[in-house]
């Protein structure tokens, strides 16, 4: 029986980062993973393969829509779907192998197989039981569906199936206008699929700033995505080759149908804790199945910790990673910390969408006095030069102290630009601090500075 200071269950971004950090802090560490490869949902069937397909399909879009304008003429590239999937596979493999290398480098033992916790201090993998002073559960999440809709990963697919369709469908219905539905919907729309997104609410990307929601939907529509809003999907029926989606229009109270070759169910994800034995151990779960933890990511059972998608909070890889590092640090007797107020969210469509901190709607609800600095990418020379002048930066700052409260960006490289504001928020920056910082010209970042200037005496190029 092997003895460890820490055994992490699950090698997604939460688990593998926790294991590496624990080992770096001198703790004897193992990580259990049931999949064939490391990296969890994110690397295998989430963030990374979706970004590979978004990248490839974006290149096609550029070739079809912008190359000729720049004097690059000739036949548009045709799509070899199998080759595109092979490219995606290579990207995934490169990343998962990278984690294997990091485990070896940091002397983290990879225990291959599905793990369970027969009692506190013990982890069973296959027939072997290992002892661990501390256990970190990082078992992640799985797709969830809605009543009347059964995912068969054939005609009715989750994101996992959508990343690996045998052929590009002619018609796709996406149920749910959240991040995953819109990213994958965009991929297929660019590849020539007629994509209709059916959403229960009257706005896309629930929880995002209203300005972003409105403009993002308008831009996606312009690209060709269709939307049916305020529509409750009742059921999905399938024949051998076709699917039919029945939905109820909430405002009219009428039932309508849509035919599709593939239906993507993107209605959210739920914590995955099957087979761990948590109930028998008495580990408390929330009604939504999330593992409950204290401020140090420890559950109500001493020595058992939990992080990532399996616990409360945004289901994001970087949130899981931060919790992984922090939990390992707490176990090592240090002061692990995650600032949940400054966790950026990014949608990797074109244009990208990024957001951190409070939305304008939240500030209104809190009754907080705020000011808005907004700057359109049309006023940014670099964005215009690369045909990405759509969108804006919206900065929210406290009306009195000028302290930055939130930032919402839709436009080129939004997912990278947002981090300037994240760092600023961590340092308690004011909008003026950003406005007084020299930004190189011509960069997209100048739009962030201009939005900060707009919180004060005014932007220059608006
Ligand atoms: P996971 O990544 O789910 O990893 C958990 C691992 O634990 C799995 O490999 C599982 O096999 C293993 N496991 C579970 N139980 C056991 C057991 N008993 N024994 C052994 N192993 C076990 N987030 C972003 O931040 N950015 C994005 O761009 C992004 N894109 C996404 C796109 C898609 C299509 C999807 C589905 C998700 C995306 N996400 C994205 C979300 C992101 O993937 C998750 O938030 C992240 O993977 C959560 O990390 P985790 O470590 O908590 O769990």
Automatic annotation (TrEMBL):
Q: Could you say which EC number(s) this protein's record lists?
A: 1.8.1.4
Disulfide bond sites: 42-47
- Describe the reaction catalysed, as an equation: N(6)-[(R)-dihydrolipoyl]-L-lysyl-[protein] + NAD(+) = N(6)-[(R)-lipoyl]-L-lysyl-[protein] + NADH + H(+)
Give the miscellaneous note.
The active site is a redox-active disulfide bond.
- Give me the residues that bind NAD(+), please: 176-183, 199, 268
Provide the gene name from the record.
lpd3
Q: Where does FAD bind?
A: 51, 115, 309, 315-318
GO MF terms held by the record: dihydrolipoyl dehydrogenase (NADH) activity; flavin adenine dinucleotide binding
The protein's matches in SUPFAM superfamilies, at most eight in alphabetical order, are given as: FAD/NAD(P)-binding domain, FAD/NAD-linked reductases, dimerisation (C-terminal) domain
Name recorded for this polypeptide: Dihydrolipoyl dehydrogenase
Q: How is the cofactor bound, as the UniProt entry phrases it?
A: Binds 1 FAD per subunit.
Cofactor(s) for this protein?
FAD
> A Pfam family name for this chain?
Pyr_redox_dim
Gene Ontology biological process: 2-oxoglutarate metabolic process; cellular respiration
Q: Where is the active site?
A: 441 (proton acceptor)
- Keywords tagged on the record: Disulfide bond, FAD, Flavoprotein, NAD, Nucleotide-binding, Oxidoreductase, Redox-active center
> Which positions fall inside the Pyridine nucleotide-disulphide oxidoreductase dimerisation domain?
343-452
The similarity annotation says: Belongs to the class-I pyridine nucleotide-disulfide oxidoreductase family.
Organism, per UniProt? Thalassovita autumnalis
Presence of keyword Ribonucleoprotein: no
| Domain FAD/NAD(P)-binding, residue spans | 4-324
* Keyword Isomerase attributed: no
**GO CC terms:** cytoplasm; transferase complex
């Amino acid at each position: 029986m092997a003895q460890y200071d820490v055994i992490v269950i699950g090698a997604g971004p939460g688990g593998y980062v926790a294991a590496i950090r624990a080992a770096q802090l001198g703790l004897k560490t193992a990580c259990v993973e049931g999949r064939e490869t490391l990296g969890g949902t994110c690397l295998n069937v989430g963030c990374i393969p979706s970004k590979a397909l978004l990248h490839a399909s974006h290149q096609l879009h550029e070739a079809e829509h912008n190359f000729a304008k720049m004097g690059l003429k000739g036949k548009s590239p045709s799509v070899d779907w199998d080759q595109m999937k092979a490219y995606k596979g290579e990207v995934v493999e490169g990343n998962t192998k990278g984690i294997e290398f990091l485990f070896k480098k940091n002397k983290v033992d990879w225990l291959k197989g599905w793990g369970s916790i027969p009692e506190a201090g013990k982890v069973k993998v296959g027939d072997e039981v290992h002892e661990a002073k501390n256990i970190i559960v990082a078992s992640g999440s799985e797709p969830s569906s809605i009543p009347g809709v059964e995912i068969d990963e054939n005609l009715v697919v989750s994101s996992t199936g959508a990343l690996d369709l045998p052929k590009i469908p002619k018609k796709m219905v996406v149920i749910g206008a959240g991040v995953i539905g819109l990213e994958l919907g965009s991929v297929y729309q660019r590849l020539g699929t007629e994509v209709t997104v059916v959403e229960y609410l009257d706005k896309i990307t629930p929880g995002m700033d209203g300005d972003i929601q409105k403009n993002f939907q308008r831009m996606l529509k312009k690209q060709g995505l269709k939307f049916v809003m305020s529509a409750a999907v009742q059921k999905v029926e399938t024949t051998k080759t076709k699917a039919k989606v029945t939905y109820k229009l909430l405002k009219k109270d009428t039932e309508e149908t849509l035919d599709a070759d593939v239906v993507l169910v993107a209605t959210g994800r739920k914590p995955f804790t099957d087979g761990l034995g948590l109930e028998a151990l008495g580990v408390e779960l929330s009604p939504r199945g999330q593992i409950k933890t204290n401020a140090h990511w420890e559950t109500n059972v001493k020595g058992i910790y939990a992080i990532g998608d399996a616990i409360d909070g945004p289901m994001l890889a970087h949130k899981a990673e931060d919790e992984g590092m922090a939990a390992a640090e707490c176990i090592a007797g240090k002061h692990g910390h995650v600032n949940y107020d400054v966790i950026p969210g990014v949608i990797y469509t074109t244009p990208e969408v990024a957001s951190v901190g409070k939305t304008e709607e939240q500030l209104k609800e809190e009754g907080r006095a705020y000011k808005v600095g907004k700057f359109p990418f049309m006023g940014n020379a670099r964005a215009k030069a690369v045909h990405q002048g759509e969108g804006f930066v919206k900065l929210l700052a406290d009306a009195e102290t000028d302290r930055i409260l939130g930032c919402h960006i839709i436009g080129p490289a939004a997912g990278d630009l947002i981090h300037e504001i994240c760092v600023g928020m961590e340092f308690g920056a004011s909008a003026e601090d950003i406005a007084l910082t020299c930004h190189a010209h011509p960069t997209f970042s100048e739009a962030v500075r201009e939005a900060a200037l707009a919180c004060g005496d005014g932007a220059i190029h608006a």
